[in-house]
Design a protein that fits this description.
alpha/beta; Rossmann fold; DNA polymerase, domain 1; 6-stranded parallel β-sheet; 9 helices
């Protein structure tokens, strides 16, 4: 078994809170649309709109906000007021400026691992917003670089490893998303650690359980140093 030399960390809901804030906005959105007497499944409509928009709009707050506006118009049959539309946009702006809240144990683990491993943050979403959150996180001291991808698939991971000169078997990805952080990494012959988060977006959990027992699950990032020690031994 090859020794791990390089670790990639997902960002949202692995290093800092993210989906919980989206959930708060989605609750306000549902309450607003319900006030128009809408009987449809608002959450389902919004989610399906988000998925349709992903190929052109990508991931992140801006895509989410546009999907809310589009869903609001459709669900209310165009009867939503301009004032309420402006409020939806304002919710999106507030998401863009939400303070970065690191998850428990992140700073301690990063500090412990930085002397033994090369560390990258590998995320997806809006480049400007993700870079802003990374800058605000205070984690740059521990991280060699951040990679912000349009999609996290096996080809994207292959390109990253080729660009930094790391063999797949020497790379470990750590994240909360089965779809983005685990399955594509396993497919290219690398290692993966899944750290579930209670508010992971539905889209990122749709393929859970499809790869057998080929990855490790930890309850918290605090268990990562012990895992790495046992892996090396």
């Amino acid at each position: 078994m090859s020794t791990i030399s390089t670790i990639g960390f997902d960002a949202d809901d692995t290093l800092w809170e993210s989906e919980v804030f989206f959930g708060e906005v989605e609750k306000k959105f549902s309450d607003l649309i319900n006030s128009y007497g809408v009987e449809a499944d608002i959450g389902k409509e919004l989610y399906e709109t988000e998925k349709r928009n992903l190929p052109k709009l990508g991931y992140g707050v801006k895509s989410f906000t546009i999907s809310m506006v589009e869903s609001a118009h459709h669900l209310t049959q165009g009867n939503i007021s301009s004032g309420d539309m402006i409020e939806i946009v304002q919710w999106g702006k507030e998401l863009l400026h939400h303070p970065v809240k690191l998850l428990s144990g992140v700073l301690d683990v990063m500090s412990e691992l930085q002397s033994r491993f090369t560390i990258y943050v590998i995320t997806k979403g809006d480049p400007f917003h993700q870079q802003q959150k990374f800058n605000d996180s205070g984690l740059s001291t521990f991280v060699t670089d951040i990679e912000i991808l349009q999609e996290k698939d096996n080809e994207a991971y292959r390109k990253i490893l080729a660009s930094i000169g790391v063999a797949p078997e020497q790379f470990l990805m750590v994240g909360n998303s089965i779809r983005s952080d685990i399955l594509p990494v396993i497919e290219i012959g690398s290692h993966a650690v899944h750290i579930p988060h209670e508010t992971t977006w539905q889209y990122e959990t749709e393929h859970a359980g499809t790869s057998g027992d080929t990855y490790t699950i930890l309850e918290s990032i605090r268990g990562l140093p012990e895992f790495l020690a046992s892996f090396d031994s």
